[in-house]
Amino acid sequence: MRKIATEEAWSIPEVAAELKKVANSPTQALDKLLVKGIYDAQPGADGYDAMDFLGGLLDVQDKRLSQMDELGVDMHLLSLTAPGVQMFDADTATDLAALANDRMAEICHNNPTRFAGLASFAPHSPKRAAKEIDRAMSELKLNGLIVNSHTYGEYFDDPKFWPILEAAEAHDACIYIHPRGASDTLKGPLQDYGMDSAMWGYGVEVGTHAVRMMAGGVFDAFPNLKICIGHMGEAVPFWIWRINFMNSRAQSANRAKKTERSMEEYFKDNFVFTTSGVEDDLALRYSIDRMGIDNVLWAIDYPYQPMKPAVDWMDQAPVTEEERHALYHGNAERIFHIK
Ligand SMILES: COc1cc(C(=O)O)cc(C(=O)O)c1
Ligand SMILES: [Mn+2]
Questions:
Q1: Residues 106-140: pLDDT tens digits?
Q2: Which active-site residues does the annotation give?
Q3: Quick one: which of 235, 236, 260, 237 has its CA closest to 248?
């Protein structure tokens, strides 16, 4: 069975070098905790260096590909790892997004059956971002788009970003909204106990972004726009009944923006989500039964999650063989235009 992993992190030395500067900058962004640990690792300080995430991010043809061969993973859908270019100034972000897209396109063109890619862009300059999206999709023939949730505390329900959404919809380019540390206005109690990143804060950040987009009417403006989120839908699938009920009550009470469709309809029609970093049988079964098999894709979240457990888990997950085909490759081929 063809296996396509859809949230597979990657980076280039130029972005890593720029993030090392961020690690030593006065920024108060919550991402700094993790950026310091990965890009300016002090051996033994917090153990991130022992996990060698940076080595895994920069590698494509060596350990990554040999593990894929060993485990029968046909393809990685690569994306520039969080926080991407979003902590840089607008010009640096625009330039490095284009550079990363060129490098990614080269990898994909040289290994067309093993790697596909999601293009980066700099949301800071929506019109320039839209041009990079046009270039990435039309010229570089990449497979979709990646953004790491907020950019300087702003979210895609804000119409200033809608040139980006317009370009994505026009190209039928799914935007993967990947996590990063919560924005300065959201980070409050997320700064302790390791809650800043994958354990909790990431899900809060992306879940908040997804609900803002649905409740903000984004999908009335862009009915064909497709969004992908990871980590079994950042808990939104579990919470969707309550989101739907409380939003429709708030709309009736004129406390929420009137929308053409319901929150549940938007989540079903305009979102898909992956299993990245949630290797849980019951969560998977619920997600398929609640949101539909066409909306769930398999992912590893390499190098942050080890490859073998993610394969072993999906190989034995409690799904039909038809569902397993959809999870492992069918949905990814459709959403990310993978031949
Ligand atoms: C950007 O840094 C990341 C770190 C981790 C982690 O497990 O600590 C996970 C992700 C991720 O889920 O992509 C990203
Ligand atoms: Mn990830």
A1: 999 999 999 999 999 999 999 999 999 999 999 99
A2: 301
A3: 260
Ligand nearest to the CA of 5: 2
Strands (E) in the chain, as ranges, are 4-10, 75-80, 115-119, 144-147, 175-177, 227-229, 271-274, 296-297
Residue nearest to atom 12 of ligand 1 (CA): 198
The identity of residue 145, as a single letter, is L
Residues 6+ apart with CB under 8 A from 20: 39, 40
The pTM assigned to this predicted structure is 0.98
* Contact residues of ligand 1, CB 6 A cut-off: 9, 34, 81-82, 197-198, 277, 301, 304
Condensed to tens digits (0 to 9), the pLDDT of residues 65-84 reads 999 999 999 999 999 999 99
How does the average pLDDT of the chain come out, rounded? Answer: 97
Contacts of 317 (CB under 8 A, 6+ apart): 281, 284, 324, 327
